[in-house]
Write a structure and sequence with these properties.
Elements lengths: L16 H5 L13 E5 L2 H4 L9 E8 L5 E8 L3 E3 L11 E5 L5 E3 L3 E3 L8 E9 L2 E5 L12 E7 L3 E8 L4 E8 L5 E7 L5 E8 L5
Antiparallel strand pairs: 1-2, 2-3, 3-8, 4-7, 5-6, 5-8, 8-9, 9-12, 10-11, 11-14, 12-13
């Protein structure tokens, strides 16, 4: 259902609400990627990965023609490489470790600290106009187009975009400026109705 890296499987009465809600808005709308989860092509042509033992999966959200945010799940390996993304562009990419919030430029290889279940999950976003958009860190699909939409306006001082949410929902969105390589975030509280509102993240605003 989520088209991504998570799906509720526990029995009735045993679901973890916090984990389930990380896949959707407060009204239950599932925050899906634009491309459902698939095995990475790297499993079939990377000499370091044997296809029968390769557990590397990817998906992505297309926020604009060039602003494609990738999601990569890794099991049995903690090394992320560019070829694990689905058709990466000739751009500089930022890696956000979903579990630890660590940031790194994707230059060659990036080692990802695993999460509590010993697998790794990364959001990989291109720098465009000085900004790499991460989206909503509290959700598995952080930059779902069910939540965020353009046009994206970015300059050296800020990045702005549109956010959709359920009534009375609060959304925190984050991005990284190339100059500082620090996570910058902004919160937006919605009124008692479904709405799409503008949000701006300033380069000088810390988490």
């Amino acid at each position: 259902l989520s088209s991504a890296f998570v799906g509720p499987m526990d029995g009735l009465g045993f679901l973890n609400k916090t984990r389930v809600m990380a896949s959707c808005r407060d009204d239950g709308l599932v925050l899906k990627p634009d491309r459902p989860i698939a095995t990475s092509d790297a499993c079939f042509y990377d000499d370091d990965l044997a296809p029968e033992n390769c557990y590397v999966y990817n998906a992505y959200s297309d926020l604009s023609p060039r602003r494609r945010v990738h999601y990569v799940y890794l099991d049995r390996t903690t090394t992320l490489t560019l070829d694990m993304l689905h058709h990466p562009a000739n751009l500089t990419y930022l890696v956000y470790n979903w579990y630890t919030a660590d940031l790194a430029l994707l230059l060659g290889r990036v080692r990802l600290a695993p999460g509590y279940e010993n697998h790794s999950y990364a959001v990989v976003s291109p720098f465009l106009d000085g900004w790499a958009f991460i989206g909503e860190p509290a959700k598995y699909t952080t930059a779902s187009t069910k939540r965020f939409s353009g046009p994206f306006h970015a300059d050296d001082r800020s990045i702005s975009f549109a956010v959709s949410a359920a009534p009375n929902e609060t959304v925190q969105a984050c991005a990284v400026h190339r100059r500082t390589l620090a996570l910058r975030c902004a919160d937006l509280h919605f009124p008692d109705r479904h709405a799409t509102l503008p949000l701006r993240i300033d380069a000088s605003r810390d988490l």
